[in-house]
Amino acid sequence: MKFANVPMKNIGPIKISGNVLKGEFKIPLATFESPLWPSVDRGARLSTYTDSGISITVVDDRMTRSVLFEAPDALTAVEIINEINKDHNPLAEAASTTSNYVKLKDVNSQIIGNLIFLRFSFETGNAAGHNMCTLAAEAIMNYLLERFPSLSYESISGNYCTDKKVSAVNGILGRGKYIIAEITVSKELCGKFLKTTPERLVQLNIRKNLLGSLVSGSVRSANAHVANMLLAFYLATGQDAANIVEGSQAITFAEIKGGDLYFTVTLPNLILGTIGNGKNLDFVKDNLELMGFDVNTSDELDAKKLAGLCAATVLCGELSLLAAQTNQGELMDAHKRIERS
User: Fold this and answer.
1) Same domain for 314 and 272?
2) Residue 120 near residue 133 (C-beta atoms within 8 A)
3) Which of 107, 125, 155 represents a domain boundary (last residue)?
């Protein structure tokens, strides 16, 4: 087997607090965009000078798969959905036969003509859960086809998941780890590390990230370059990198609190895990150990901790880039100096 070599460096430490992890952590990032390392590292160094560092909150955790059925007509489709919604326990039991870790959380539906789109949300332990959810969804699908003979199979995936595509539904109903990263930075630290002011950062976030994204027609997404940090983190930790499509649908928000900068990034669709495909590679094991994980054992919070580290990394990169863009010429100067060297 051949491997594609991607340059990789460690940044940090990042100072982190929150409901799943606390401490200072080194973070590996694999990228061809060499200015990303010093940029994210600037945000990481800044975090170590604040009281609490970057606060990480885990809001939700689920993975999804949607299936597609055909009913004889719309009325039959409605009747079947009503029957399904009376009791989800049989569906949960069907899913549980496929894995000891998968658990059905909820079911959502859409009816288009005589077509039924069912969206299943599952808990998947420390795995990202793509294959686990597909297997569980297939078991549920087989159960429903047997229970409702008038239904016919159309597809194991109906795009209502939504997997590796831009959509609104993931932000509304959730897919992956829903993580919020927050930091409060004094005016003095903004000047010392970021060469700007809280007021200037808040103004640029409103005009660039919020209004600029609105003008461009972004879907539940308002950020500077979240995809950059996600891809570098995903590649370094053995994740399915295509999930940066929905993962980068993130919202960066900033305001002034008591003269200080309150800066936060909300990531409702972080899809990653500490076990599963890709985690058996030596460099991935080394990187997980660097961040404090024991690759020989599995703690039930490992995947949430990894998502928290990812979110903190994203915040560092968002804050640093926005700060650079408040100063005319700084961004391009950094790229010319670093990339040409």
Assistant:
1) yes
2) yes
3) 155
Together in a domain, 138 and 246: no
Q: What is the DSSP string of 80-142?
A: HHHHHHH--HHHHHHHHTT-SS-EEEEEEEEEETTEEEEEEEEE-TTB--HHHHHHHHHHHHH
CA distance 101 to 303: 13
Rounded Cα distance between 97 and 72, Å, is 29
182 lies in the same domain as 304: yes
Does 299 participate in catalysis according to the annotation?
no
Range of the domain at 126: 63-155
Whether 52 and 67 share a structural domain: no
The one-letter code for the residue type at 322 is L
**Is 33 assigned a catalytic role?**
yes
- Shared-domain flag, residues 100 and 25: no
Q: Identify whether residues 88 and 20 lie together within a single domain.
A: no
The pTM for the full model equals: 0.95
Q: How many domains does the chain have?
A: 2
Q: Are residues 192 and 312 in the same domain?
A: yes
Is position 32 within any domain? yes
Rg (CA), the chain: 22
Express each pLDDT in 17-41 by its tens digit: 998 999 999 999 999 999 999 999 9
Give mean pLDDT, residues 38-55.
97
| Distance separating alpha carbons of residues 111 and 124, to the nearest angstrom | 27
> Tokens at residue 14, please?
């990042």
Return d(Cα 145, Cα 98) in angstroms, integer. 17
Active-site residue, 51 included: no
Catalytic residue selected from 24, 33, 255, 330? 33
β partners of residue 152: 70
Catalytic residue among 24, 60, 240, 255: 240
Q: 259-293 burial by CB neighbour count: b if 16+ within 10 A, else e?
A: ebbbbbbbbbbbbbbbbbebbeeeebeebbeebeb
Helix axes 226-236, 282-290, angle to 10 degrees: 110
Whether residue 334 is predicted with pLDDT greater than 70 in this model: the reply is no
